[in-house]
Design a protein that fits this description.
Length: 437
Amino acid sequence: MTVRTLAPAMYDKVTTAVARDTGDRRTAALWIHAAGLARHAREHGRLPAGAQPPGPDGLRKSLEDLASCHPALAPLTDPQVLPVWDQPLGDAAWEILDDFWARHPVLEAEHRVDGYALGDTYQMLSEDARKGRALCQTPPWIARLLLRLSLEPAMEEWGPADVRMIDPACGTGHIAVAAFHRARVPPARGRRRSPAGDGHQAVERALATVAGVDLDPYAAALTAYRLLASCASILRISLDHVPGSWPVNVAAADSLLDGDEPLLRAGAYHACVANPPYITPRDAGVRDRVRAAYPQVAVGKYSLALPFTALMLECLAAPGGYVAQLTANAFMKREFGRRYVTEFLPRFDARWIIDTSGAYIPGHGTPTCILVHRARPPVGDTVTVIRGNRGEPRVPEDPARGLVWSAIEDAVDSRLARDRFQEGLERFQRGEVTSSE
């Protein structure tokens, strides 16, 4: 995927300029991004053809058009989600905003457009989301590996038609959208071909597979847009032709504390995949509520990543479900992780521990690791560990092909190939397959 990216200073400059009119950077960021979203929908044919009226009124008309396409997009007309409905923007600020998108369009050079650049753009524009809620989007190559170690084996075990997946900290939808595409074309099992992924039935099935929840209502709405835009792009239709009855399982809620959200029902998911926030809650009341809800892991100055692990393993995952996450490795070194390591994690079936601290991950200044567990007591005595001995000698031009990340993927490939060979050999010895197969 080719995405046009800008230096952070460019986003800061336009946000500062528009904030002189709106009075605060949060509102300015939402105005700017909403204009980019509307332009994306128009220019990529996600809305019916027709010129957008000029100025803020034209933006609001485009958002109304989007909201009318599917019930999942209704939040785009909610003033509590987007202030464009009750906080006017002056002509001078609009000219700055409009010129920004005219010079730096949110375009992707792919036949199937899923709004990837929109997700990263929101992270860059919104200081409130980036610093206040630790929004840091998961790069596509990391999302692919997380899904390969969780959603793919879940589809093989439970079947593509029945499997369900959730990202309970979905942000703007990088993992959820990647999961949609993976579910649309499931991995082949044995010699059987994967079913076609471009028909209406396959697209609807993939959409039903994926769920996402996020604390940020605008990020959740953007995830819903990206999933629907993916459907429309694959089927080569505009958004208003996507059936309103098709499920878009995205909600704005506090995954850790909102027990009433239907998407957070216990035991509903065969795969839980996340890159949860690594921060400690700033609000003392929220900090104490999370500590009370997750006493085994929310200890001391805990990282939110630990309660998210507990949420996925103890609540969201079905028995035996796969839980994969990119997470900060601070729990391995600091006191708040002691109980997590010695008492909590040993209760579950650890499958993979991958040291990603040496890999270059844009936007991630925190050393990380990948953990993959199954929501069941430990099975066997083997855990696959990929250790990091060295970091990148220099910043790679393509992070997905960095030396460290490439070594990690090679090690995963080797282990999975070995496991497949071993499984096939054992089945052959049990007489379940013949040599001709």
